Fold each of these.
Amino acid sequence: MPAPAQFVEFVDTHADKFIQRLADAVAIPSVSGEAGRREDVVKMAHWLNGQLNSLGVTTELRDLGKHVMDGQELSLPPAILGRMGDDPKKKTILIYGHFDVQPAFKSDGWDTEPFKLVIDSKTGRLIGRGSTDDKGPIMGWLNVLETHKSLGLELPVNLRFCFEGMEESGSEGLDDLIVSETKKGKEGWFDGVDCVCISDNYWLNDRTPCLTYGLRGLSYFKIVVQGPARDLHSGMFGRAVHEPMTDLIALMSKLVTPDGKILVPGVDEMVPAADDEEKKIYNSLDYSIADVEDAVGGKIAISADKATVLMGRMRMPSLSLHGIEGAFYGAGAKTVIPAKVSGKFSIRLVPPQTPDKINPLVVKYLESEFAKLNSKNQLSVECLHGGKPWVADIKHWNYEAAIKATQAVYKKQPDLTREGGSIPVTLTFAESLGVNVLLLPMGRGDDGAHSTNEKLDRSNYIEGTKLLGTYLYEAAAISA
Amino acid sequence: MPAPAQFVEFVDTHADKFIQRLADAVAIPSVSGEAGRREDVVKMAHWLNGQLNSLGVTTELRDLGKHVMDGQELSLPPAILGRMGDDPKKKTILIYGHFDVQPAFKSDGWDTEPFKLVIDSKTGRLIGRGSTDDKGPIMGWLNVLETHKSLGLELPVNLRFCFEGMEESGSEGLDDLIVSETKKGKEGWFDGVDCVCISDNYWLNDRTPCLTYGLRGLSYFKIVVQGPARDLHSGMFGRAVHEPMTDLIALMSKLVTPDGKILVPGVDEMVPAADDEEKKIYNSLDYSIADVEDAVGGKIAISADKATVLMGRMRMPSLSLHGIEGAFYGAGAKTVIPAKVSGKFSIRLVPPQTPDKINPLVVKYLESEFAKLNSKNQLSVECLHGGKPWVADIKHWNYEAAIKATQAVYKKQPDLTREGGSIPVTLTFAESLGVNVLLLPMGRGDDGAHSTNEKLDRSNYIEGTKLLGTYLYEAAAISA
Ligand SMILES: [Zn+2]
Ligand SMILES: [Zn+2]
């Protein structure tokens, strides 16, 4: 059951009005990471709440308490819980989005004012902070609701909404809210939810729509090596004492090879190898080695084999060395022997890896490698934070519906992708609700979500609005 | 020919007056590293010049031009050239010292006002900035001159003086001055100099006087590895691209072992091994492994063998890893793949090593090790700066005189030591004048030259004054 023709037609004929809605949203500089913009995040919550109410959504602004930022105690912006439809014969879909944005200053290198949506008629780009991350997708849902209200159409599913204003600053308070609304039983806002749809990521490229069914987890480590009571002069003590930096660099060099193989025994081995069939999936993705190299700005792909590079990003763990705290980091030349140095690295995890399974392997390996150094310095290893990976069942009707909707709107088979990074709320929804979660992106890989000149292509916004609506109809039509 | 008994007696009976001279010098806060104190460095130059003149020394204040500090153009403080005696039958000894000091604020942790000399009658310590580095030794020379003037004694040698006010800030302008005064022929201030005596270092410990006859040189390196055009997100690109940090850490791990062996082929090998006789010298020094570990504040000596530890510091090259520029260095956890990272390390050099001989070995080794990594990132190696090592002939009469003077004053055999660090002016004197240079310290190893609560023990100041005077008599007595 594709969406009714009048739905699609209405979206096309009201495109300018929908773009104005996005412009209104972008104009509120709801930067969650700046204390001075906190009022604007709250203003954005009220603006969005007003839109939802006017389109028939029952809502509640939920206070999430206070937190400290830049030494200042601030109230967290409220989360918005919403409900539309309670028909027990319909499926119930929970929509997530965030109405806060990354900081942006024209002086960062923007060509236009970041909080004024600029429509570039030559390229079709809608340029402004939050256009693609994540105001565009939220406006897409409002557009779907407005279209139905205007046409007097009934929605094919029940909807629940969860919109937050702290995503760019760690989603403070959200996990507790989700868990509590799930646990409440018949009184919880998320009772009876059949699946979740999140639009907060991007296509792999600028050509082919995708659905994302996996995210990597993370274990972040700090290796501390210390010896002398204070920094030493290398002239005075070089070759007289064990230097913490020598030991730390030796340890850090034993973690990963230049081509990405993780040397901690048991880590790579925990992941089943891809068979030929799975490799085919990666080879068929519309994402080439050249796309990867374009994106990073250097011809440094880890392999000449496309499947190897894409699997390295999507279905393999990775280990990156981030830096060292406590050593000399400035420009110029300083002849110090640092007294205490802390190496930082992290491992991106894929199923069945979890921090609980990985961390002991890492700690044990580092301790045994350190013992081999025969150094009199002291080692300690800390696990700073972590998160589990997530992979969804792509045979679920939630994905089936999204695939059909993509085919209907874009006339293309979507790429089915896993992403290398984390969107922690995904795992929270999947684990606390126990339902299928779908990542259904609206924007393209070159949108520059956290960068200067963030944009959403007009066609992605308008076709994306159709996609979201069509997805609801396809979901409703499948017998679950 | 020891010093006349009346010389020694006069120094003892005038100790309080000499301490007052040191107090007057400490009271002028001649910090060369702070633009706001530049006037005080100039004031100190004029005060010292007045003292020299009143004691019969012919002097010239030499303008060294201007330089830029903290974005401000400043006149360099003048250097003082001095001359006393022109008897062709006498030896001519050049004395070097510096009248500038390190910065000091009570708030740094001083127990007393840094620029007010405090006499701790219980410990015998003279506490104040510059007391030991390097105003104490300069005052020692003035005390020797005053004693001779008061007693109507003729000096046994001709003296030349070179006092500067920028030593703690890179000795700007001094090298050129020394070279030009040497090259001038009969008109140069340093014409006819037979040897040099520098009092600007310290005993190894707080017990045994020492003479220092060697200093290590330095080659400072920067290893730059770069790949992507910008910093990357480790979730997005971990295991998809070659990461510069992985390559850099691999290279840095191949430079030195935890017990100090340098892995660059040809570097350690360039230094002849010590034979048993030389090892005996190190074993006989009054400096133990416990002294080293006390000084660094940790039980981290590189070996349980005393000679190995002391030779590591004094007569072997050492390689220290200082840090990384461009990587994450803060507290906390950041999941960045840095785009361009620069590893900093340096090698302390000993004869016959020089930067010219060592640098090509290092560059070649790093390039060949990088090639083995099979990385698509780019490597470049820079040599930031360097200096040659220096070792003096301890059989020279200059050292013979200092040994006899030490025996006469302290009733002890001095430790003959080499130091791990550099005092660049030493090499300039040795190379441009082509004469023997002696480092004859006045203070003790625990004086805290660049630290809080800098002190010079009263006995080191008074016996040190006797030592300097006696050294002149012993030098005069030896038939060169
Ligand atoms: Zn987002
Ligand atoms: Zn000094």
Amino acid sequence: MQFDSLDDIAAFCRDLPVGDARAADAAALRQQALTKPPGSLGRLEELALWLARWQRRESPRLDHVTITVFAGNHGIAARGVSAYPQAVTAQMVANFAGGGAAINQIANLAGADLCVVPIELDRPTRDFTVAPAMDVDEFLGAIDIGYRTVPPDSDLLAVGEMGIANTTTAATLCAALLGGSGEHWAGRGTGVDDAGLARKRETIETAVSFHRAILGNPLAVAAALGGRELAAIAGAILAARRHHIPVLLDGFVATAAILPLASLNAGIMDHCRAGHVSAESGHRALLRELGLKPLLDLDMRLGEASGAGIAILLLRAALSCHMGMATFSEAGVSGAGT
Amino acid sequence: MQFDSLDDIAAFCRDLPVGDARAADAAALRQQALTKPPGSLGRLEELALWLARWQRRESPRLDHVTITVFAGNHGIAARGVSAYPQAVTAQMVANFAGGGAAINQIANLAGADLCVVPIELDRPTRDFTVAPAMDVDEFLGAIDIGYRTVPPDSDLLAVGEMGIANTTTAATLCAALLGGSGEHWAGRGTGVDDAGLARKRETIETAVSFHRAILGNPLAVAAALGGRELAAIAGAILAARRHHIPVLLDGFVATAAILPLASLNAGIMDHCRAGHVSAESGHRALLRELGLKPLLDLDMRLGEASGAGIAILLLRAALSCHMGMATFSEAGVSGAGT
């Protein structure tokens, strides 16, 4: 396994690989010469520099883009916190395989390979209101699965998830690591009714109270109050950092998956961007806590990497301008103040 | 000419063509059957219905997408309201022709035809602080040019502009038709310095005061305080409405171009969406006044249809999900509460 213990992960997070400032500086010089007022492409300019920094290439590329969707099941689904039955997780994995889901269409449009990784769907995590969701070995196993899915030569990785009840898991991680009530972090997920939302809030608060002895240890929290697909996302983010691959995060659950790592070292987010802010109510608050500014705000709340997948299109726009535009001298265009 | 008088335009605006509610309703029924929680694709769902309504097709398409960039020059450029010399308008038109501008890269990425229409660049409008920018015939001529550029069989039209000093023109139209000071509406455009910004504010206020007798007539304002490329955008929007073509507006200038029409009948915006909100300070306020919610917010402020061009990618995402996803019954996925 890539990490044999929680301490191994913590050690990696203490001494994170860094990007290439020289590649980013060279890309910034090119930006300044392109036929546009300085800064006028806004966030697209910063995205081009970010790709250069993490790909460690003055001329970044998006030839090999991967979207990875991890799927897991959750013991707390039995508590009636979702509008859908747990069987839907596996049914949607089959839908991904058949090409019928939103992310299939988006991956095709974005020119990305779609990789779907179901993790022990027939063995949900334990109900974390009464026990740890995973023991340390189960957690490390899920981290490892995520780590190994990342092709080291990827130019970009977008991560997302599928898992009935997992917005409750995400909200519980937020409450455990950031404080705040169940009411603050619980949203309607796939569309739970008022009674379900009340059960969701209660589940979060019961769980945080039950595990109060470990709240100071973010990785222990990620095991005890997390889920397999969230751990796998964290593993994929760690692998991307090792291989200098920029990452687009999807919605609330995918962002909650990085929270335990960010609690150890906020620098883990340097190679990540938030693809979008979802309509799930906790996501905007979580992004604010993490200092992440989303690229898109389209009221989406589907998961399955759909928001991150659409954000790939923005990176393609950033890259095509950065690499394809003429410079002022090439085009014979006058600069400012001339 | 399509419109022989300002009254002809006003008459068209009084009795605007409408979309096809049955096509939109049929598209909405399809949305409800797709394998996702209802509403979970957020604004992408509304965009698919909007395409269906205006294309009058239950199954909308984006096979023939056109980006049109109108260019014009402005008498008020001589007042030092821009960071760039007026020659840059023609130089950038040449850059568009040569494929070196941002919009060339974006059009390629978005699968759109790019149509660039320079309008009498060697004959700037008159300085509207001392005279009408255009007389009625000049204005109608520019409207007509814009109208005739629109291919009647387009599936989508994105409109933008190029014209040194034209954020001053746009801000002046806003101040004239919506009220508010020069300070409220003037931004830094391509990056004007403090002294230039002060000249810009003064230009706006002088112009509105000079033309105070006509402020109650939106089309007279569009002629006297507008620009040729703004009039052409209005003409293109009118043609798109005639031919039932949905329109994506670009930034502050393109949005200001629809303002005189919207002042006559707010329904003119029904076949339009704001592609983005730009960093130009007046744009957010103008969108709010018009009740338009932008699709993107990326701190861009380039013009040349760049924001609208990127928004085409979102429409492609909306369409690909709408047309490509499996239904619950096709995929064997359980619905909510089952």
Amino acid sequence: MTADVCVLAYSGGLDTSVAIRWLHETKGYDIIALAVDVGQGDDLEAVRSKALRIGAVDSVVVDARDEFAERYIARVLKANALYEGKYPVVSSLSRPLIASHLVRVARAFGAGAVGHGCTGKGNDQVRVEVSVRALAPDLTIEAPIREHAMSRTESQAYAEAHGIPVPTTTLSPYSVDQNLWGRACECGVLEDPWQTPPKDAYAYTRDPGSVLDPPRDVVVTFTEGVPSAIDGRPVTVAEAIVALNEVGGGFGFGRIDMIENRLVGIKSREVYEAPGALALITAHRDLEDLVLDRHTHHYKARLEAEYATLVYNGLWFTPLRRALDAFIDETQRQVCGDVRLTFGPGSCHASGRRSAFSLYDESLATYTGYDTFRHDAAEGFVKIWGMPAEVWAQKSRAAGGAADPVLAVEGSGATWDE
Amino acid sequence: MTADVCVLAYSGGLDTSVAIRWLHETKGYDIIALAVDVGQGDDLEAVRSKALRIGAVDSVVVDARDEFAERYIARVLKANALYEGKYPVVSSLSRPLIASHLVRVARAFGAGAVGHGCTGKGNDQVRVEVSVRALAPDLTIEAPIREHAMSRTESQAYAEAHGIPVPTTTLSPYSVDQNLWGRACECGVLEDPWQTPPKDAYAYTRDPGSVLDPPRDVVVTFTEGVPSAIDGRPVTVAEAIVALNEVGGGFGFGRIDMIENRLVGIKSREVYEAPGALALITAHRDLEDLVLDRHTHHYKARLEAEYATLVYNGLWFTPLRRALDAFIDETQRQVCGDVRLTFGPGSCHASGRRSAFSLYDESLATYTGYDTFRHDAAEGFVKIWGMPAEVWAQKSRAAGGAADPVLAVEGSGATWDE
Amino acid sequence: MTADVCVLAYSGGLDTSVAIRWLHETKGYDIIALAVDVGQGDDLEAVRSKALRIGAVDSVVVDARDEFAERYIARVLKANALYEGKYPVVSSLSRPLIASHLVRVARAFGAGAVGHGCTGKGNDQVRVEVSVRALAPDLTIEAPIREHAMSRTESQAYAEAHGIPVPTTTLSPYSVDQNLWGRACECGVLEDPWQTPPKDAYAYTRDPGSVLDPPRDVVVTFTEGVPSAIDGRPVTVAEAIVALNEVGGGFGFGRIDMIENRLVGIKSREVYEAPGALALITAHRDLEDLVLDRHTHHYKARLEAEYATLVYNGLWFTPLRRALDAFIDETQRQVCGDVRLTFGPGSCHASGRRSAFSLYDESLATYTGYDTFRHDAAEGFVKIWGMPAEVWAQKSRAAGGAADPVLAVEGSGATWDE
Amino acid sequence: MTADVCVLAYSGGLDTSVAIRWLHETKGYDIIALAVDVGQGDDLEAVRSKALRIGAVDSVVVDARDEFAERYIARVLKANALYEGKYPVVSSLSRPLIASHLVRVARAFGAGAVGHGCTGKGNDQVRVEVSVRALAPDLTIEAPIREHAMSRTESQAYAEAHGIPVPTTTLSPYSVDQNLWGRACECGVLEDPWQTPPKDAYAYTRDPGSVLDPPRDVVVTFTEGVPSAIDGRPVTVAEAIVALNEVGGGFGFGRIDMIENRLVGIKSREVYEAPGALALITAHRDLEDLVLDRHTHHYKARLEAEYATLVYNGLWFTPLRRALDAFIDETQRQVCGDVRLTFGPGSCHASGRRSAFSLYDESLATYTGYDTFRHDAAEGFVKIWGMPAEVWAQKSRAAGGAADPVLAVEGSGATWDE
């Protein structure tokens, strides 16, 4: 293991470009740049070359799009994972994947350190570092941006002084992260939560107000909880997401504007776009409504919130995530079938669903059978179901306390529960 | 108490009209009809007269709209109650209110029985009967429709034979229930879950495809968790709902098409419209994101699902509902502020929020203060936060088991968790 | 399939003996008696013969002790399942097993019906019937005791009139059910919850007040969550239970006296004895404390309560149970190691534990390593951890509301939260 | 506010004695020592004098025993709070109380800082600091032990060099913290989790093996969830705890030996003694079993674990704790009645319970009433309750998948769920 080699997660942007030089000059590392393709849509060959020009001793690009789709996105989709009920853990999900590739490349090159460009204010430092430590506790972790905390002006000055190319185009006013599963946008004017997000905050979705297309139906087929066909055409998970990003984005669907609780103790205002993710979760939930029995459905709903929080909090490579996945996978065996999504301007909803494993069936022979005895059965059920409430009311009344419900209801204006 | 007087929840429709006569003829009751105004929009004076014409000895109309809004809807709004994540417990909520008025009228008239027109297949029988038994366990409960189980044709024949007026207009193919908080529609073609709901299934909302209006902003002000002003104009809770039903409905927003798990053990396909309810819950949640701290936010989210299920399951008049409300009310003290909703065709989202109790504040003096020490604090936090995962990885590795993460990652294609 | 053959779960007692004859005479069934050995300690060969003497056309005994231990008890042990925090689901667990054997025998003999001797007041009817319906929805289920509801005197009269042997010994004043995992006792004087249970209510345990033995240590070894050795001697799960029933019972440990909520809506007072079950759960939990990380530990604790309730409620043969087991099995991979239990009169506790997968290790090299940076790390952690509470306090103060914590604390006697 | 005055939580021990001098010499503070009486049993007047001798400018003793009992312990008792199912949050509970008195004294004296003697390895630093920041975010917090991290030898040398009295008696090998609610003991030989705790680790309880007394009954009366009488004699909460500490400790009851997950990411081995706490929780739970309906009971059980974790994690002065207390208080209205505890050597259990609000009553008139219709009601209930499982089994069978339960059961040895 070479203690003075550091594999740096490299995006091609200003901060990680400065980091290549800074880590070398300040800490003496030979830097290997690593760019991981998670569907962000950048020209990664250009990114690879740029790292070398700046001074990396080596530069690696990994196409992890299918791995990301099959082994990360498929799981959060089966979990219907939405942090705080809204955010489909877009950036949260790519960080452990990137961390695992940092470790792989470090092992392949015998490096003793890995580095990342996360700041000290966000969640991503947690996700990358906890993942690296779970996978390779012996590696040193460098966090130059957090450690050195240069302002943007200082970064530019440093870049110019060291001959690092600075983008000549106007810098975005936002901090953006994007991948196959969605796009995150923060900072700038968005820091005022009362301000409506301006149009230039969006890139994955059209302005819904400009959509003139008529509504469009898309049928998504699921096999064991993951998409396997779109409108009858077989697809990989990655292809399904790309297809629905395109359709949904074209209808201006998939925007999220929210205040969220970061793990590091502060609230932030985030604008996300995730047309494919939200469409797929909508369809997946709808199919589950049809094929999961009530007990499983209700329990899984509670587990889903935990799952999303766990992923958001950077705990991907942990025993709990594996145990939750074991639960989820067991529930997905029968999540097979079709859901028809209807897209309109800024909207997407399920308008039909069917499955060989449907637990709803109007023509089910026994359904009519139940009808014949439903009268007695239902009456008996209601009697037993309501017995605790009735006994409670009777005993409270007998005990005379303030809880006597009948007196309360009879009273003038006074009511049961006050 | 007069054992042979029965107060019947009366809607004016065929079934409860037949029930008036049937309960009298078969069981010897004198019937007092009770129609409760929960915002369903019917001509209740006409309903009142009709009951008398059919043979009720007395007929009562109660305007419970404000009671419904203030004492029932306000609670489920504070709870963001959506059964199975989707259904704003529209009918579930009116049933205990109606039951409480059945009991009040029974007490006022000294009646020994109350009656309702629910079938044996649905949830409403549970909600009405459990509520009556909690409030007045001594009353007899009559459920003529469940007991006698006439088909629609038989009901019509019975009605004609007894001179009961039958609506001359074509009967709706659907079974509909509506109130201030929304509208439920089932049966007919909707029983095929693959079928897109036809346009005539909707009444509270325009077809989103026909909306040509430009997007519209509405600012909702909340005071301790309930709406207190719309666009700056003070409103009651009921007025807020009416206003947002109108705006939202006009944009075709608020439709829900779902498969749901009934308490009585079967799945059903339901189409709901709840523009005001969904708009208010959207706004309320958004404001909570701003003013509730993370721990309270996450705990309350779990409680909300329980609350919705409890209400759906007919357990309104129970000690658990009161205890959950005590929790919720405590959290709502600071849920005060403004949310700007933006309506488009078929859509509504929050585009801005502000509050004196905001826990997000870009200009918060101490925020910058944190910045000064964030580097160390964050690094320390990440170290402690990730320690269990790291220790676990180290120990697993030392113990040699299959769980060795590093070997797995290094392998060709093999990965951490397989 | 022979519609007029019924396989009856037969215990040899008065009720099911009467049921053999009654089902034949009243409903025309040929009865096949089935006695399942779940470790209840009865002479099942005698039970088998008795059924034939009374009139069964066939009589079968199945030794299901190891199946019960390996496939049922092992699961609830891994789940630390205690209904309402106290009851190790003793009877709840044998019912689905018995139901599965009813179905197997019915299939083997081509019978069209199965029967059981449960009353209409208890939980067991639910457990047996839901299990049969999940396994073989086509079978008719007979519940003669619930249907006919003979009093004990009537049963005796019926028995005498039909030449059915009645036990000559005095009948127990209690209703008892026992198996490998424990013993349940109810009725008689126990129906007064204020009454201390008399000594004759117990059979698996000595009176703790009469125990004069000195404390005794027993080391239980677990492999993937199930006991594999006692004091170094390899054991099957069934043998481990038998051994600890003996040791624990000899110390008067394992008695439970509780008021419990039945699924059918009423409370009952139950006296249980489960020395082996409680000792194994104590040991298993203690080992989990050592080898499960905090997140998994806390999540699993919540799941355990659900698991126990699900089993108690008769939902063994359901998809949710399988999914919960998938979660649990994943967590048990590293639940391997030794726990030393110390037994005293009426007590048992863990006094030592060790494991190759221990996440606690005083000599762990990195532990000292953490020490070197703990100062900064801990300080940073505390800063971040407490930030939401601090921001909340600051904002509440600034907003001036009643929540101002400082003023409250300063006040005369008034405090923060009132 | 005087920035150079610091109120230090002072115990009289070596570490905080050294801290008085060190904070003065190193940071220039005038120190006001504060000793809070939470029932630890020390001579606090001597502690007060000692602080002055060492150099504190002022020294204050506050008797907070009743405040601790009424406003802290009563709450965790109503919550049956046991962290990780075992630990009655003994030290966790006194820390926010002590923090509130630090703030009060700081305000009274106009001090600008408060200090504590917690190390960087434990939970107490979190509890004290988060509480202070919630109550008085403007105060500086000094943590000299964490900051300076002297070894014990260094502390002694420092003490001798500065004329600080060092206890002449042999120092305990353990780190101990005790109060009214219990006693915590760690370090020394206990750091080996396999080692049985030696006898000198205990102080609140006799060795159970040496107890020769016959079993003893004690009747605890509760009023709205808190103890109000012992054997018929009215008591305050503090008196009830003292009385049961004495009885329980005399029987050797109340010892806990556990591995626990600290908030700061490590596991520790802890030995606790809490005879009064565990006896009161046993009694309180037992009474709740009698008076809480099932839904409330089951929901509260889940909340209790959250409550204990929240208190353990130092989040006492937070909105979530207040909201949870609102829930709990609502449930305690009817937790009134008597529980008979039976103490034996090393054990304590409830052997009888009664209440005017009991939901169990063998003589309840309606109970017999239910009997008359139980047959039908129970049969109907079971039908409805089992319907989801049955429909699921039928549909799985029809869909042919691997889940066909009937084929599986029929197979040779193969079973339903494999």
